[in-house]
Amino acid sequence: MESGLPDQNLALACGDFRSLPHSQQGGHREVIAREGGLRYSTQMSVEPLVEMKGSITPEEMARYARHLTLPELGVDGQSRISNAKVLCIGAGGLGSPILMYLAAAGVGEIGIIDFDRVDSSNLQRQVIHQQSSIGELKVDSAKRAINALNPFVEVTTFAERLTRENVISIFTRFDLIIDGADNFSTRYLANDAAVLLGKPYIWGSIYQFDGQLSTFWAKHGPCYRCLHPEPPLPGTVPSCSVAGVLGVLCATIGSLQATEALKIIAGFGEPLIGSLLSYDARTTDFEKITLKKNPHCPICSQTPTHTELLDSYEDFCGEYGSINVTELLEVVASGKEFALIDVREANEWDAGYLQGAIHLPLGDLLAGSGDAILAAAPEIIFYCRSGRRSDTALTYAKKQGFKRSTHLAGGILAYIAETGQ
Predict the structure, then answer these.
(1) Contact, 129 vs 146, CB < 8 A?
(2) Alpha carbon of residue 261 to chain centroid
(3) Edge-to-edge, what's the strand order for the sheet holding 380-383?
(4) Rounded to whole angstroms, what are the CA distances from 314 to 79, 319, 338?
(5) Catalytic status, residue 223
(6) What is the pTM assigned to this prediction?
(7) Of 117, 314, 379, 408, which has the highest C-beta tally within 10 A?
């Protein structure tokens, strides 16, 4: 880019690499001048978020000595870090470096919410987990790693999905929220809850070789909805299981998110409030874009139209979740009655299918030909080759009222990679 941004400056992708027509048309984003290859802006400093605790022990003095010698941090800053309570959403690709560096820094209490289990495909990027962790709840694996790194850190785990029903009670316990989630419904839910509770929300996303992050704090600047007022259309954004991701990219973006947290906790430096930072691992280019508060934002403006959480973030995003291969195998082993529906085309079905599956091509499903099958099934699991068509099938099923339905993330390709069958 020579100057400004092209009309579609960000590639459409699973992170949040979307074109930004909403923001540009609304007039609340602007590109800032750059020097060399790095865009920069005049940012704001904020007061420390967390109060200092009573004193630092000799053991802590020794452990955090390199922090204590920093004039911008020192004993007071480390005391605030040690008194902080930070929640990390997800213990996956982004969550791994976030959690490890916050633990190493001595954050007093770290909360982790994640319902997923470790599988072998995670280990390419989710470095908080080990080979021996496969099949284990991610929150348990992550807690063990944190405890091994820093016994002074208290770890609180939530082995569950973040939902409309639990988000307020969980967020209330923490000073700051860091988002390592990989879906839009969780991002909008987390943003809205953070705005309503007045808490800082540090967001990051990754896709293939690209990453983005920002710090949203409604009382000081824009929120996530100011950047993306509406979610992308269902089925237009591939998951990282489909599109792929460079493993080490997680470390770059996740460590920057952890840095943002420490800056806000201790009150040093200039956090990314009002800025979007983008990174391209292929060229090692960083670019920074100024974000302004949307005066018409439905939740963080002076006249919000949303004063409470939405009834359903899944409906808002057209995003209804998925299961992985391990979870599918658990459902099969449990003996529960369910319909496994293959929405691929006939030639793909003829080449091979999962045992017990029902063949119902996506086109036929969307035409209503399979409604009787869906109605008769107590639970429904869709699958396809890679997960994109099954996600579309799931959206259709949910809109038709078949709530007890999901789909297999990564499709039959993920199944073959995991099981070798």
Answers:
(1) no
(2) 16
(3) 358-359, 339-342, 380-383, 405-407
(4) 40, 5, 22
(5) no
(6) 0.77
(7) 408
Q: Which residues contact 99 (CB under 8 A, 6 or more apart)?
A: 88, 91, 110, 112, 128, 142, 145, 146
Indicate the angle between helix axes 74-82 and 247-266, nearest 10 degrees. 110
Torsion angle, alpha carbons of 249, 254, 260, 264, to 10: 180
Catalytic residue of the set 14, 297, 317, 384: 384
Is the model more confident about 415 or about 421?
A: 415
Residues in the chain: 421
pLDDT tens digit string along 220-246? 999 999 999 998 876 677 767 667 899
Amino acid at 156: T
Q: Out of 240, 250, 297, 300, which one is annotated catalytic?
A: 240
Q: What strand order describes the sheet that includes 29-30?
A: 29-30, 285-291, 275-280, 210-216, 201-207, 176-179, 85-89, 109-113, 154-158
Within 164-312, residue ranges assigned H as helices are 167-171, 184-197, 224-227, 240-243, 247-266
| CA gap 157, 78 in Å, rounded | 24
Report d(CA 146, CA 126) in Å as an integer.
14
